[in-house]
Write a structure and sequence with these properties.
The protein is about 80% helix and about 0% strand.
């Protein structure tokens, strides 16, 4: 259950960051927000996938990997934001940091939901209390 639901749950929660972009600039079309969101997520996902061998062999690097992914989200967002989502480079960096926090929070919520569903399923499978 956990492996099956991880992709749809975390993907859905991450996709909600498309709506967070409307906080940064009103009137931006949905297609543009979707494009910006998934371009940002792709860059972070590449770092996440590249870090998996280190996280699997050395679990203490999990937090470092999450921080690197968050930094990549922020940098990617800040590079594309001037003129589209922010008027200045400073505004782009601030909004990039906020967007990275929002995305990571949504990922954590998705993983938490996934774990809760897996725990409930496991308890029900073994005839829990």
């Amino acid at each position: 259950v956990m492996a099956f639901l991880q992709v749809p749950l975390v993907g859905t929660m991450t996709a909600f960051s498309v709506f967070a972009l409307s906080l940064f600039k009103r009137g931006l079309k949905f297609a543009a927000r979707l494009n910006i969101t998934f371009a940002t997520l792709t860059a972070g996902s590449l770092i996440g996938l590249a870090s998996q061998p280190f996280v699997v062999t050395r679990p203490q690097y999990g937090v470092l990997a999450a921080v690197l992914i968050m930094i990549m989200y922020g940098i990617t967002f800040a590079r594309g934001a001037p003129g589209v989502l922010a008027e200045t480079r400073r505004g782009a960096v601030i909004k990039g940091g906020l967007f990275a926090l929002i995305v990571m929070a949504l990922v954590i919520v998705g993983h938490t939901l996934n774990n809760l569903i897996a725990i409930i399923y496991a308890a029900a499978s073994i005839g829990g209390p």
